[in-house]
User: Fold Bifunctional diguanylate cyclase/phosphodiesterase from Paenibacillus thermoaerophilus.
Amino acid sequence: EAKERGKNGYMFFNAELSRRLSRKLDIETSLRRAAEAGELSLFYQPQIRLSDGCCIGMEALMRWSHPVLGQVPPSEFIAVAEETGLILPIGRWALEEACRQMGEWRSSGLAPRRIAVNLSLRQLHDPHLTEWISNLLERYGIDPGALELEVTESTAMSDGDLVVLRMRELKRLGVSLSIDDFGTGYASLSHLSQFPLDRLKIDRSFVRELAVGLNREPIVAAIVAMAGHLQLETIAEGVESDAQADFLRMIGCKEAQGHKYSQPLPAEAATEWLTARIAAEQAAAGADPMDA
Ligand code: C2E
Ligand code: MG
Ligand code: MG
Ligand code: MG
Assistant:
């Protein structure tokens, strides 16, 4: 009987493995034409200044709606795109679409201070990246400081020298740079200080464990303090509760992003969100401070 189970287990493994491989192949094949087919889109998630609740940025997050597979999560297709090199064309598409949207928001007076776009390792290896971004900013009339590029901690650590060089090149262009998912990798302080960074994004896995009795608060407070010593701003990702936001504000974290404020929104909904937000901010600014 044990033998039978083993055999079944083995067969199950094979079936599961082949299902996964075929899904991966499906994704790879259809990702090639996803951009041209108009299946890719960007969602935008607001970034909030904790001191006054103002929206200071939007992070662009890629979405893929596959005609048969439906919504494929970025955690799945970005990995395939990185493996196959398809991240180069779709990553450029995302950068351009984000800048185009920012230009549109700018002309309707809705633009937040910055737009953040995720960059992956392959893109940083592209020797034409900086020049291409420079042209892009010019084309859409975006101030370089209004573009923030997010590079994950593991990307930053994976290939030391080239990534440092590329980031210095990008910094000379005037764009803003942040380390995404900070705290999940093994960045050493000396390594971090080589990068011309503006901000650390504290990973959601830490934020999730705040204010729930797990005693993770000292770790996050230490990250924020360390960032301060390195002259870096901090933004917390995945903030869902008032208690998390209150704690982050108290320890000096300047900004937050998460479901507490808004989920990532499709462009049209993000535009509505910005419209409502700006009206509310203007009403608050115009109100008598004694009434507050
Ligand atoms: P990320 O850059 O760290 O983005 C944050 C992720 O956390 C997003 O997942 C967002 O939807 C999610 N999130 C934000 N707030 C909350 C919250 O309060 N609770 C929970 N549970 N989740 C929250 P998403 O959109 O699925 O993206 C996953 C990852 O895919 C991103 O992580 C990023 O690494 C990658 N990605 C997305 N778009 C792009 C892109 O255009 N280029 C590249 N290279 N990578 C991208
Ligand atoms: Mg990000
Ligand atoms: Mg992140
Ligand atoms: Mg993340």
Remarks:
- DSSP finds twelve helices and ten strands in the chain.
